[in-house]
Amino acid sequence: MLELTAGHYHLLVDPPRGGSVAAFTWRDRPIFRPSIPGSVLDTACFPLVPFSNRIARGRIPFGADVVTLPANAPEADMANPLHGYGWLADWEVIDATPETAILEHAYEGGEWPWHYSATQHFALAADGLTMRLSVTNRSDAVMPAGLGFHPYFPRSAQTLYRGLHRGEWQVDDGCLPVSLSEADVPKDWWNGQPVSSRVVDTAFAGRAGDLLLAWPEIDLHAIIVPSDNLPCTVVYTPEAEDFFCVEPVSHTTDAINRSDTDFPMASLAPGETMTASMQIAASAWGRSQVR
Fold first, then answer.
1. Prediction pTM value
2. Which member of 77, 206, 262, 275 lies 3.0 to 4.6 Å from 134 by CB, making a disulfide possible if both were Cys?
3. Across the chain, what does the average pLDDT equal?
């Protein structure tokens, strides 16, 4: 593993395990849920590339063609490909210092019929963590693309989450979108209540501002600042678990198959690159200034 330290922050990166994060703490308090033995779904955070969440039945209409992808993680979803392919890869370490790391993943083709390369940059500083993820289309045809980050956070009965969004997608039993519930203005869909007060696994669209998390019982507060091209947030709050996920992503779930979304996947020309980032800073709960 790669160990990064700056100020009161500590980060462990696990390149062979899907280019994932194994631990992220501030003053020895966990911001991400620490990795546990198992699959990449048991890590602290992993990259979403070249798409986020699910593609219904693996069907991708693109131009005059239709591409059909098999399920890539049947232990998690037997019907639909999930979270892209970067999380299933062994990432190569390109550079590492005590405060930074650069990883790369080259996909030469296979179930996903386009060639691409992806790069992750981790930069730890006294004022927080910056994670940057990029994908470059290395094929000779236009490639659909999306990016995102899939962090897991520890959860108690007091844990709070606040993210302002215009819409919440209603989903079916397979977590695929069915219809969009929209508000007149971006709102907190938890209405200030603890994150465990709602059981969801869905995408929220039209983010306004930062994402805020708090663990009052351990005097910890975190602010997530996604880049502007991550306008959606997938939130996963499984029932009776001690974790939850808040995932900044570039497009809504199954966007490639929907005409009723304002946040589609990108179309990358040969050689074109898409980049997204996420910054996270921690402070004591109740402090008005992040330190």
1. 0.96
2. 275
3. 95
CA 218 to chain centre: 25
Going by C-alpha positions, the residue among 149, 249, 239, 256 that lies closest to residue 203 is 249
Q: Return phi, psi of residue 139, to 5°.
A: -90, 175
Terminal Cα-to-Cα distance of the chain (whole angstroms): 27
CATH match of 2-283 with 2.60.40.420:
no
Task: Give the separation between CA 24 and CA 8, rounded to whole angstroms.
Answer: 11
Helices (H), 14-64: none
H or E stretch at 77? none
DSSP code, position 155: -
Instruction: Express each pLDDT in 236-291 by its tens digit.
Output: 999 999 999 999 999 999 999 999 999 999 999 999 999 999 999 999 986 533 33
Q: Tell me the helix, strand and coil percentages in the chain, rounded to 5.
A: 5, 50, 40
List the structure tokens of 30: 């966990």
For residue 129 the two structure tokens come to: 């963590």
232-236 and 201-215 beta bridge pairing: antiparallel
Give the pair of three-digit tokens for residue 130: 């910056």
